[in-house]
Structure formats: C-alpha cells, structure tokens
C-alpha cells in the first residue's frame, strides 16, 4: 500500500464502505477493502473483470490430461504385454487415467493459483487489518502521505465510518 | 445512533433479490420471522468450538475404543494372515470390499452437496455442506484403508503406483482396479483441497474470536493469514468456482469407476451396463442419509436449530426420495435383464439373492432402501426430524446390505455349482468394520470441536448485506 500512513475506516454498512471506496478512487489513492463476506458490489467497485485463476486451472487440466495419457501409453510401450486380446496401447482403457489426471492437475494448479494470487500464506503482514473485519464489519484502508491524514479522516467520517484509525502504512 | 443507523442489517435489498432470485429460494432469509445477523451466525457457530463437555469426551472415548478394536484385529490379521478374515474360496472379496464400497458411497454426497449444489445455486446446502464435506473426506480416508487391509501384505501397497522400479514393470492401466486407485486418490485429493479451501475464511473468523493462546496459534497458522481483502475474495471466489466445476465430474466418475471393478468382470450379477448410474445413485442416496444421521445429533447438541431448520431436512429428504426411486428402478432392471437375457447363470443369481441362504439380506435391503423411504412423500414426516433420523439409520443399514448382496452373494453363486461357497464372518473381520466406524467417528468428533462445522461465511453470504439506506437509496 502506497503512502507512509494508512487511514482505516471501520464500517457497519456496506453502502458506507462503498462510499469510502469511491472517495479513495476519486482521490486517486491506494486502498484495500476488508469484508467478512464476498459481495458483488464490492467486487465491482474494486476489481471488476475476471480473475486470472482460470488460466492456471485450464493449463493444469490440459497438462494433466496429456500426462495421464502419456503415462499410460508410455508404460504400456515400455513393457509391451498384450492382455485379453486388447491392443498394447488400448486407448479406451486409458481414458479413465487421462480423465482423472485432468481433474487432479486442474485442482492442484487451481490451488497453486489461489495461493499465489491471494498471497497466502501471509500470517504476519496485514496492513490496517482489524479482527472485526472477519466478523461483522467492513474495513476500508487508504494509504496516504502524512500531510493528508487529517483531511482524509474528516472525509472518511463523512462517509459514515463507525471508527477511524490512523496507522503506519508501507 | 442516528435515525438511519436504526435501519438494521436486514433491510431488504430488493435489487439483490431481483438479480439473484435463486439466492433467496430455500435460503434462510425470507421465511424467517427474525432472520439471523452476522454476529448471531458467528456466535452460534463458534459456540461449537467451546471447551468440550463430558458427552464429547465420552463419544470420543467410544470411537477410540472402536479404533482400538479395529487396530487389534488388523494386527492379528497381519501376524497370522488372511485366514483370520474368514475369507475362503469363492468369497475372496467378502466383508472388506463390501465395507470399502459402503464408505466410498458415503463419501459421495459431500461433493454432491458442496460442489454440484453450489453450481446450481441451491442455497439450502449452505448450513449443511461443511459437515457433508468433512464426512466426505473422513469417509474416503476410511474407505482407503480397506483395499490396504484387503491386500494382506499391506507394506506392498505402493506396488499399485506407477514408479520406475528394478523389476522394469508397470501397473496394468487397462485394469479397473488400477483405475480405482487413480479415481479414489484423485477424489481424496480434490475433495480434501476443496474442503480445506472452504474452511480458510471461517478459520480466520475463529482466529479473530479465539480466546486461548492454543486456539490463536492453531487458527493463526491454519487460516494461512487470511484477511478477507478485496483481491483475496476476488481470486478466492473464482478458484472456489473452478474447484466446484472440477469436483462435479468426480461425483459421477468415482463411483462409476468403483462400479467397473465389478461390471468389467463376467461374474453373474456384476456384468451389467447399468452399474455406473446405479452405483452413483446409490452412493448419493447413502451419503445424504449419512449426512442427516450426523446432522441430527449435532443440531441438538450444539443448539443449531436456527441454522439447520426443518426445511433443510425437507430438501434433503426430497433428494433421498429421488435417489431411492432411481435405486428401486435399478434393482428392478437387474432382475428384468436377468430374466430377459435368458442367461441361466444370471437367472440363477437373481433367484439366489432373494431366496438363497441369506435372502434376509436382500429383503432387508429392499425394505430399507425402497419401501420405508417412500413414507417421505408425506411432508409432515419429511419435517419430523426424529422420524427422518430413523429413516436414515435404516438407509445406512440397507446400503451396507446392498453392497453385501452385490459382492458376497454374487461371488458365492457363480457358474459351477461345485465351486459355490459361502463367506464366513470372523471376529477379525467384524472388528475391522467396527474399527472403521470408530475411525470415521473419531475424525468427525475432533473436527466439530476444533473447526467450524457449519460454513460461517457462506451463511452470511445469503443474508442481505447490512445497509444504512434501504435499497433504492445510495445503493
């Protein structure tokens, strides 16, 4: 978060939090929003558009499918043994392996994408976080220069914040 | 407090309702006289994590005793060999594979409830799905033990995995048994990941409300530092959707692959194309029954009446009715195809099941799975929770008997009368089955006391977000 100070607005109501986001955007200030639940209005106000997670899920699924078929085909050719008059490379039987590996790799890649894009694990570094933000409050944290703090506090108060805190930013 | 602030959290958000009508169908909000608030959801669910009572310790002790019985039995089998398990020709699959299929079936509905119903936006799943997912993961963990126990020489289990070895041979990828290894291990991996991902925001709630140092550390680490920031929610909801989409095909594939363990063979009673849908329907049927069996006592013990309402049981009973119908049809089709095929071995098998030495297993299965659940057509009974509990207990029994009929009865009565035989239960076999219930119960008991067993965040999601101004104002 840009700016040496972080002004934290604690909100009970989502519409007030949305006003604070609008304020940060119009003032061209860096901000972060904390909420106890995901909400489509918050998402539209902060990060509209699609998450890139889907590209990694797709890449993992394609890789898994290829790896599953490749494993079954290569091992069959490596030790060619005809079973029950089937071809050594009997593709219908390998569909199950390909199918399962598609899902397995797709899932693993989705997990890695989630950890990467959500910056997890991140146990110690949460700028402006307050434990109430996971319970029933919304938080809007705005980074700013030291000289702007008083003005920003006053403007956040107008948006209906229950409480405003000034903390060190990064 | 200003006039505006007196408008509490549940000021109706009409545009949300218009935009997402399905969100409110079957959800918590509209039918409640006094809907829950975010705070009430927190306190109700987190109260489950309070220090355990003597009843919890008693139940855990019972489970551990059962695990000990299973452990002693398995040790005895390892020391003395498979004869301890009562296996003899022709019933070499016996009770272990019966119980394996039973547990895989139980594991099935967790993913149905968590992933499939998520994609369909069926909001009655919200208070239920966490328990169903936990049940899935612990049931797969239990099921996975049985092929290992059944191997006899369990220390060679890794031979099933494709790895370069000094013998220069590979597992047979055309074998349904190897497909099963891939299907079950993929299912375990994906369902565990889906379960853990769903838990992270709720563990963060528990972390921020934790009172003891032990809990603060436990939840601090296991929540991975989740903060609920807007980029996190953005990517989290996307990833969760993809997990649901990836897990959904597994609902169909896992038990289809398990059914191929049987259907790919030529044993009379097994070699049937109806097996995959028949097994999938049966698995969903038994899994939902087990979810209810677990939910009913938990609801009572932890005071979850406002979260787990009769309408949730009503919705699940409708799924039971649907799957019971599919199952009854499948049982009928099996008999019909045996008769219509004019294959004397098939006909003999399907005569043997109801009228053979253990016909009681067939009639018990029919009563528990086909006849008794039909009472759920009566709405009054669907919302009568003690009655529903009894139905689900009978279904659990009936579904174990179904697998017994498929596996033991079929193997006992194959082609040549000379090789007909019977399976003799031994104490080791029974001890291991008891141990599996203890193992499953132990994980469930520990889970409900240490982690949120009801999805806090998702229940909050179906509540209208708190607003200062009613919809149409500055929204």
Folded structure, characterized:
- The complex is a heterodimer of chains A (170) and B (475).
- The mean pLDDT of chain A is 90.
- The radius of gyration of chain A is 25 Å and the shape is rod-shaped.
- Chain A folds into two domains: 5-48 and 129-168, Alpha-Beta Plaits (2-Layer Sandwich), CATH 3.30.70; 53-117, no CATH class.
- The N and C termini of chain A lie close together (6 Å).
- Chain A has a four-stranded antiparallel β-sheet, covered by helices on one side.
- With 170 residues, chain A is an alpha+beta fold.
- Helix content of chain A is 49%, strand content 14%.
- Chain B has 475 residues and is an all-alpha fold.
- Chain B has one domain (4-162, 171-461).
- The longest helix of chain B has 34 residues, at 176-209.
- Chain B is 67% helix and 0% strand.
- Chain B is globular, with a radius of gyration of 24 Å.
- At the A-B interface, helix 1, strand 2, helix 2, helix 3 and helix 4 of A face helix 3, helix 7, helix 9 and helix 17 of B.
What would a concise description of this structure say?
Chain A is an alpha+beta fold and 170 residues long.
Overall domain count of chain B: 1
Report the average pLDDT across residues of chain B: 86
The number of helical elements of chain B comes to 17
Output the strand order for the largest sheet of chain A.
2-3-1-4
Features:
heterodimer; A: 170 residues; alpha+beta; Alpha-Beta Plaits; four-stranded antiparallel beta sheet; 4 strands; rod-shaped; B: 475 residues; mainly alpha; globular; disordered N terminus
């Amino acid at each position: 978060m840009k700016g040496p100070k972080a002004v934290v607005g604690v909100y009970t109501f989502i519409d007030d939090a949305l006003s604070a986001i609008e304020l940060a955007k119009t003032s061209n200030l860096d901000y972060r929003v904390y909420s106890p639940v995901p909400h489509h209005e918050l998402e539209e106000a902060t990060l509209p558009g699609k998450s890139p997670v889907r590209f990694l899920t797709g890449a993992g699924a394609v890789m898994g499918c290829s790896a599953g078929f490749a494993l079954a085909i290569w091992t069959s050719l490596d030790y060619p043994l005809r079973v029950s008059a089937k071809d050594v490379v009997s593709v219908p039987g390998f569909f199950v392996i390909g199918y399962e590996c598609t899902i397995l790799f797709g899932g693993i890649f989705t997990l890695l994408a989630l950890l990467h894009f959500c910056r997890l694990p991140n146990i110690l570094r949460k700028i402006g976080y307050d434990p109430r933000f996971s319970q029933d409050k919304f938080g809007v944290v705005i980074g700013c220069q030291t000289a702007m703090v008083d003005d920003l506090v006053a403007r956040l108060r107008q948006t209906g914040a229950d409480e405003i805190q000034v903390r060190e930013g990064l | 407090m200003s006039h505006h602030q007196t408008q509490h959290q549940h000021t109706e958000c009409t545009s949300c309702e218009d935009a997402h009508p399905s969100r409110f169908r079957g959800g918590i909000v509209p039918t409640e006289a006094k809907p829950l608030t975010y705070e009430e959801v927190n306190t109700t669910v987190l109260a489950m994590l309070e220090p355990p009572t003597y009843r919890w310790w008693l139940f855990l002790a019972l489970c551990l005793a059962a695990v000990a019985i299973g452990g002693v039995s398995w040790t005895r089998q390892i020391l003395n060999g498979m004869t301890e398990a009562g296996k003899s020709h022709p019933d070499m699959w016996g009770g272990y594979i019966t119980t394996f299929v039973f547990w895989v079936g139980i594991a099935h509905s967790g993913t149905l409830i968590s992933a499939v119903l998520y994609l369909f936006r069926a909001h009655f799943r919200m208070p239920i799905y966490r328990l169903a997912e936990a049940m899935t993961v612990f049931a797969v963990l239990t099921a996975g033990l049985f092929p290992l126990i059944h191997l006899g020489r369990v220390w060679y289990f890794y031979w099933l995995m494709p790895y370069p070895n000094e013998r220069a041979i590979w597992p047979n990828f055309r074998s349904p048994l190897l497909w099963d290894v891939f299907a079950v291990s993929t299912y375990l991996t994906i369902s565990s990941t889906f379960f853990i991902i769903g838990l992270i925001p709720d563990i963060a709630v528990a972390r921020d409300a934790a009172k003891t140092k032990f809990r603060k550390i436990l939840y601090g680490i296991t929540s991975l530092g989740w903060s609920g920031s807007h980029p996190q929610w953005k990517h989290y909801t996307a990833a969760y959707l993809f997990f649901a989409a990836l897990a959904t095909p597994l609902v169909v594939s896992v038990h289809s692959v398990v059914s191929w363990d049987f259907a790919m063979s030529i044993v009379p009673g097994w070699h049937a194309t109806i097996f995959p849908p028949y097994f999938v329907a049966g698995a969903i049927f038994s899994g939902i029954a087990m979810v209810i069996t677990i939910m009913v006592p938990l609801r009572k013990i932890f005071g979850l009446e406002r979260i787990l309402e009769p309408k949730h049981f009503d919705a699940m009973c409708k799924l039971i009715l649907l799957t019971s119908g599919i199952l009854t049809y499948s049982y009928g089709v099996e008999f019909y195809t045996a008769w219509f095929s004019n294959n004397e071995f098939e006909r003999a098998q399907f005569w043997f099941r109801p009228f053979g030495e253990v016909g009681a297993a067939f009639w018990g299965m029919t009563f528990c799975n086909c006849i008794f659940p039909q009472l759920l057509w009566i709405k009054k009974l669907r919302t009568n929770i003690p009655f529903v509990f009894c139905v689900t207990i009978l279904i659990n029994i009936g579904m174990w008997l179904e697998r017994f009929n498929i596996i033991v009865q079929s193997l006992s009565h194959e082609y040549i009368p000379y090789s007909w035989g019977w399976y003799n239960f031994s104490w080791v076999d029974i001890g291991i089955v008891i141990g599996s219930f203890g193992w499953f119960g132990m994980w469930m008991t520990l889970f409900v006391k240490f982690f949120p067993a009801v999805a806090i965040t998702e229940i909050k999601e179906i509540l209208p977000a708190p607003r200062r101004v009613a919809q149409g104002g500055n929204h």
